[in-house]
């Protein structure tokens, strides 16, 4: 059973205890059932049909996730000192070197909306919305991701998947940027446990309640530079929910220093207000 809320041209499908859909098609579904990130593996083509590559002068610099045909979510820190006119968004991308892919489409960014609470080099509010100059056309390779319900579910204990074209390791360890989309599974931690790990490692970083930690105590698997803004998803009731946005970390994949993500379900009101205002213009 589900409740359907119509809000200014957007349809929010909200099954109880499940997900929010901000698009006009089904969300969080991938036609690929089995499918650099540090110690990840190549994703299958179209395995994450909501992931986008943010580009400036043709070069990938951050990731993002489609939430409807005009908007994508990314990290605020990705967009500092950048203007919308400088950024394009690539959808249905898999190999960054395949410039002739018949599936990849580029869209010009027309608006950047940073969360008003974001402060440079801080965890709180590291989330942003970008809109495009035309609507994305849905298909098997391009689909929106679902958003989690606004129930503040901490998702602690869930196994999540992060994907991106970032570095395969820290530069000092010989890492380099991945050209083929990478993915890796990492467990989500309770914030209190994450804070204790950072404290044990003599790191003074405060894990705020709008952040989320995911990683292994022994390290070895993580997002890295270039994955920023990309999606951290969990699969729940057969759908992929965008629970986190790649935000920060100390190094990459270090023991007891898990990756830090913006917790999406703390920002749902802001997301819906921003998208709704655009629809009303």
From TrEMBL:
Any one Gene Ontology BP term: proteolysis
Signal sequence extent: 1-18
Coiled-coil intervals: none
SMART domains tied to this protein: Tryp_SPc (SM00020)
Gene Ontology MF: a single term: serine-type endopeptidase activity
Keywords, sorted A to Z: Disulfide bond, Hydrolase, Protease, Serine protease, Signal
Residue ranges constituting the Peptidase S1 domain according to the UniProt record: 37-276
Matching InterPro entries: Peptidase_S1_PA, Peptidase_S1_PA_chymotrypsin, Peptidase_S1A, Trypsin_dom, TRYPSIN_HIS, TRYPSIN_SER
Protein name, UniProt field: Peptidase S1 domain-containing protein
């Amino acid at each position: 059973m589900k409740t359907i809320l119509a809000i200014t041209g957007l349809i929010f499908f909200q099954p109880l205890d499940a997900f929010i859909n901000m698009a006009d098609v089904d969300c969080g579904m991938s036609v690929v059932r089995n499918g650099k990130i540090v110690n990840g593996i190549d994703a299958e083509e179209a395995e994450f049909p909501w992931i986008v590559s943010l580009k400036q002068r043709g070069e990938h610099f951050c990731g993002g996730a489609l939430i409807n045909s005009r908007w994508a979510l990314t990290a605020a820190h990705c967009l500092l000192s950048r203007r919308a006119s400088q950024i394009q968004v690539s959808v249905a991308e898999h190999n960054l070197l395949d410039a002739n892919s018949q599936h990849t489409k580029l869209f010009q960014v027309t608006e950047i909306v940073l969360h008003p609470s974001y402060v440079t080099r801080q965890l709180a509010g590291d989330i942003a919305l970008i809109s495009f100059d035309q609507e994305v056309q849905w298909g098997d390779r391009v689909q929106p991701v679902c958003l989690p319900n606004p129930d503040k579910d901490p998702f602690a204990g869930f196994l999540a998947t992060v994907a991106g074209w970032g570095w395969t390791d820290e530069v000092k360890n010989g890492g380099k940027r991945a050209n083929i989309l990478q993915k890796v599974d990492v467990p989500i931690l309770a914030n209190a446990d994450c804070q204790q790990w950072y404290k044990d490692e003599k790191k003074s970083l405060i894990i705020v309640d709008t952040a989320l930690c995911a990683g292994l105590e022994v390290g070895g698997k993580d997002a890295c530079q270039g994955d920023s803004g990309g999606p951290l998803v969990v699969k729940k009731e057969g759908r992929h929910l965008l629970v986190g946005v790649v935000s920060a970390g100390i190094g990459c994949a270090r023991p007891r220093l898990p990756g830090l993500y913006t917790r999406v379900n703390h920002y749902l009101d802001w997301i819906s207000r921003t998208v709704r205002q655009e629809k009303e213009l």
